[in-house]
Amino acid sequence: MNSTRPILLIEDDQIDMMAIQRSFKNLNIKNPLNVACNGEEGLELIQQTTEIPCLIILDINMPKMSGIEFLKIVKSDPNYKTIPVVILTTSNDENDKIICYTYGAAGYIIKPIDYKEFQEAIRILNNY
What gap in Å lies between CA 21 and CA 104, rounded to an integer? Predict the structure, then answer.
């Protein structure tokens, strides 16, 4: 990654969360990784920090606030709309995919995640 700004991971599944953290470690990414368990927590993290994330990795199906609701809010805010958001989800629903891209998602990866493919997507997305 080109900056030291944090990466925000919003994921409610502990196993996926740990696997993603391991992927970032394997890529030797030095950016801090902030973690939230749902969209509501993710929104609070963004609003309470002075450093805007350089990347958001977002699950769709979560308690309290879904990933789609989070994506709508973030992409409608001029302070955050340029942050790339990669969706990681179990939803293979074409409609969900269309909605996410319509609201400004930079990528859509279906779980279970192929971590080599995931790492390559992160490299490409961040010119890493």
Answer: 24
